[in-house]
Every structure is written in structure tokens, then in C-alpha cells.
Amino acid sequence: MTGKDVEIEDRRWENRDGLPIQMKPVTEMQIKSEIARPAPHEVMPVNTIYKIKGAAWSGDAKVSKVEISTDGGEKWIEAELSGEAKENVWQMWQYDWKTPAKACKHTILARATDERGRVQPSGYGRKFLPQLKQRHFANV
After folding, report:
1. d(CA 85, CA 57)
2. Which H or E element spans position 16?
3. Which CATH number, 2.60.120.430, 3.40.640.10, 3.20.20.70, 2.60.40.650, labels domain 26-139?
4. CA dist., res. 125 & res. 119, Å (int)
5. In which region does residue 123 sit, left (phi positive, over 0), alpha (psi from -120 to 50) or beta (all else)?
6. Which residues have C-beta within 8 Å of that of residue 90, sequence separation ≥ 6?
7. 121 with 30: CB under 8 angstroms?
8. What's phi and psi for 70, nearest 5 deg?
9. What is the secondary structure of 46-61 as a DSSP string?
10. What is the DSSP-derived secondary structure letter of residue 27?
11. For the segment 29-84, what is each residue's pLDDT rounded down to a tens digit?
């Protein structure tokens, strides 16, 4: 060992009373969905089919459905799930949205439900943890 090396022998953090510490998560991850497309503030063409895409997560249960709202949460429509649903895996989803014939702004939301009946909590916050609901503002 040279004078520049540092050796640390204190490993109290690895065990307590001579036994390994049993680490447990503070909480489990809540069910959530993410919107990948459209991007926030994306401008879409009027009177066309636009494919809204994203992914949902439930952790220890399979995602059973994802719903989309294009009116800020007033009305919800079920999206199509892609591939086989599995535990602890992101579930891809998509929804073909018929954009309005007249230009206007829309708030697009997504919410997921898992096979245990747990629904993504309502709330807003790309900036906040845990992510409760993703909100996209889109111009048509």
C-alpha cells in the first residue's frame, strides 16, 4: 500500500449485531402510465388519425388496461395493449385518435389499471415523484 491508497475496514453498514441487514423498500411502485407520443406541445394535423403511444407499469401485477383522455379527463377511452402482459415489465399501448376537424388545444391524459383492479392515482406531475398522471398539451 502506498501513501496515496486508502483502505476502509469499517463495514458496520453491512450488518447489525453480526447479522446482515434485511433491506426492505420504503414503499412499492404504484401503477403508472407514460405517454411517449405525442410529445408535449406537439402540433398535429387536423382531421386525421394520430397514433397516441406509450407504456404502462404495474410492478407485481400485469397491466390489464390503459385508458386515454383527449379532453383533460372528462371522457376515457380504452387503448390497445401491445404484446403479452407480464409482471415487472413495461406494457406498451397505443390509441388511434381521430383529431378534430378544427384547430384547437387538447389535454391528453393516460391512466393504467392492473389485474388486481388497482387504478393509477389521479394527480399531475411530470416533475413530481411518484408520477401520478402524465398530462400532455397538444395543439391540433
Report:
1. 10
2. strand 15-16
3. 2.60.40.650
4. 17
5. left
6. 55, 56, 57
7. yes
8. -110, 10
9. SSSEEEEEEEEE-SSS
10. S
11. 788 999 999 988 888 888 999 999 999 999 889 999 999 999 888 999 999 999 99
Indicate if the pLDDT at residue 20 is higher than 70.
no
CB 139 within 8 A of CB 42: yes
C-alpha cell at position 125: 406531475
Kindly report the backbone phi and psi dihedral angles of residue 12, in degrees, each rounded to the nearest multiple of 5, phi listed first.
-60, -25
* Nearest CA among 94, 89, 39 for reference residue 65: 94
Q: Which residue in the block uniquely carries the three cell numbers 403511444?
A: 53
- Low-confidence winner among 6-15, 46-55, 96-105, 106-115 (lowest mean pLDDT): 6-15
* 140 alpha carbon, distance to own chain's centre: 24
49-57 and 32-37 strand pairing? antiparallel
Cell of 98: 381521430
Give pLDDT, residue 107: 87
Q: Where are the domains of the chain?
A: 26-139
